């Protein structure tokens, strides 16, 4: 898919854990399984469907809750 969520078929869009999308910080395509990624890609796809193209350009990050602590 491209930075706007379009797949090889320009009438089909994708977002979330299933995507292999371009990451401009790592200079390669990645699959990122995280809630934050899925939510932000969904916003990008929604804007694309409305004709307001804004490329997905997020820095990958994760968090983890371990007992009483939250690690980001």
Features:
FAD/NAD(P)-binding domain, two-stranded antiparallel ribbon, two-stranded antiparallel sheet, elongated, alpha+beta, about 70 residues
Describe the protein:
This protein has 72 residues and is α+β, with helices and mostly antiparallel strands. The protein has a single domain, classed as FAD/NAD(P)-binding domain (3-Layer(bba) Sandwich), CATH 3.50.50. The protein has 1 helix and 4 strands. The strands form 2 sheets. A two-stranded antiparallel sheet has the order 1-2. A two-stranded antiparallel ribbon has the order 3-4. The chain is elongated and about 45 Å long. The mean pLDDT is 91.
- What is the rounded Rg? 13 Å
Low-confidence region ranges: none
Task: Provide the domain count.
Answer: 1
CATH superfamily: FAD/NAD(P)-binding domain
Helix coverage percent: 10-25%
Concise overview:
With 72 residues, the protein is α+β, with helices and mostly antiparallel strands. The chain contains one helix and four strands.
Write the layout of secondary structure elements.
Elements: E1 21-23, E2 28-30, H1 35-49, E3 64-66, E4 69-71
Antiparallel strand pairs: 1-2, 3-4
């Amino acid at each position: 898919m491209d930075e706007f969520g379009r797949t090889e078929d320009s009438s089909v869009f994708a977002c979330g854990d299933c995507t292999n999308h371009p990451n401009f910080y790592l200079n390669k395509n990645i699959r990122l399984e995280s809630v934050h990624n899925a939510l932000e890609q969904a916003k990008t796809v929604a804007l694309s469907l409305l004709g307001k193209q804004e490329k997905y350009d997020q820095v990958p990050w994760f968090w983890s809750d371990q007992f009483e602590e939250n690690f980001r």
